[in-house]
Amino acid sequence: MIHYILQIIAFQLLFLVTYDLFLKKETFFNWNRVYLLITPVLSFLLPLIRLDFIRQHIPTAYSIQLPEVLITNSPMQLHLLPEVVIGSESQVSNYITLIPVFGYLWYIGIAASLFLFLYKVFKIFKLKRSGTKIQAKNITLISLPNTTTAFSFFNTIYIGNNLSEIKKTNVLLHEKIHVREYHSLDLIFFELLRILFWFNPLIYIYQNRVAMLQEYIADAKAISETSKKEYYQNLLSQVFQTEKISFINTFFNHSLIKNRLVMLQKSKSKKIFQLKYLLLVPVVCMMLVYTSCTEDANAQLVNDSDNKSKSQSTILNNIAELKESIAAKGEMTEEERKALKGLLLLTTENGFSEPFFKDVVADAEIPFGVIENVPVFQGCEDLSREETKKCFSQKISQHVAKQFNTKIGEDLGLNGQQRIYVRFKIDNTGKIVGVQSRAPHPDLEKEAKRVINLLPEMIPGSQNGVNVNVQYSLPIVFELKE
């Protein structure tokens, strides 16, 4: 969830930077409006998209990745990550089902934001009750006594009695455009986003950019229907009081008037500059590459039928290549013959009980996703398959945390996190064999091998009543704290 939210914020920031650098000063106001409304929605959707043709799958055949173990030179603690099965068993998870990690704080923020929103709405209705209603065509005009307030909210325009007739005319012309263009819907949309994602400052910036853009749109259309001189004088005159509500279209906004005057005097952008909107294409493509290639366990939605057909096609191609290779060579070595026979063993029904495969049964490695009985750590007997796997992972983690020499980091002068990757096999007798390790320092590799070789003998995994080999991989994080 946190990773998803960080991606949303990062994408929104990139969209806003693109807008401010390339689009903000152009007079394509309606195009900019569409951009500002679409890009926040895209920022929510793009992290959920995974394109298989972008993401490169690296096969890790017939191995199990155990939960990561965190070791530190401070008092011992374990860090258990969710178990990930790599190989023939696909992990399918729904990224859309998100759990709010902000907990009570997030809900408190939503409640506070909702209360503030309702309070603003209450202030608007209070003003509506205090004024005089005048019904015009598709528009309700509220005349407010003893004030110079001027703003619109949906199809209602609020205007103060203390404004001069000339100013009232210009204000009404301007605010009618806000009503006609449904600008209040844009602001309410961002107001709802502010309620749900009150902690995200970029939503507030988006709303500010949209509000500014709406003033440009209304000014551009209003000035075509009135005298430019009067309109400029109106804007340059005294800045009147106004209701400070984020989702209303305010005529007299001191912070916007300078920008509105600059934009009114700006000549129309050349149509060739509309090509700037094509910048959205590489920006979105870059985001898709990132989201498709990210190593997030909860980030990939798998289409079972497509994967099955692709897998079958790959197998057939590999078999054809193998046939060609054997035919070209003319003969196989004993090692090659046993390897091919071992592969045939895995695809033959009841192959483990047939005498023909007797010489390769001892070396066979069964994919973890299809093995009947997984290896069992001593003390984890008589449990269900899933409970056995969980117990196995916990026992491995406890063993590594207990046996690993944490002083080795100080002796080597290391600091920070050191990642160690270990591979080992539980053979058909339950013994630990074939231990391999990879680490930033050779001594860490040796220590990891020593610790894994100290694992007790297991109850071996079995298939069709025959004990078989099962391979595991174990990531270890050795964290040195000062």
Kindly summarize this structure in a few lines.
The chain contains 15 helices and 13 strands. It has 482 residues and is of the alpha+beta class.
Describe the structure.
By secondary structure, the protein is α+β, with helices and mostly antiparallel strands. Among the domains are: 58-94 and 365-482, no CATH class; 304-361, no CATH class. Helix content is 49%, strand content 14%. It has 15 helices and 13 strands. The chain has helices at residues 2-23, 29-45, 103-130, 165-180, 183-196, 201-223, 228-236, 254-265, 280-293, 304-329, 334-347, 358-361, 385-403, 408-412, 442-453, and strands at 63-65, 69-72, 84-86, 132-136, 139-144, 150-153, 156-160, 249-250, 416-426, 432-438, 461-463, 466-468, 470-480. The strands form three sheets. Strands 1, 2, 3, 9, 10 and 13 form a six-stranded mixed sheet that branches. The chain has a five-stranded mixed sheet with strand order 4-5-7-6-8, sandwiched between helices. A two-stranded antiparallel sheet has the order 11-12. A hairpin with a 2-residue loop joins strand 11 (461-463) and strand 12 (466-468). Helix 1 packs antiparallel against helix 2 (29-45) and helix 6 (201-223) crosses helix 8. The longest helix has 28 residues, at 103-130.
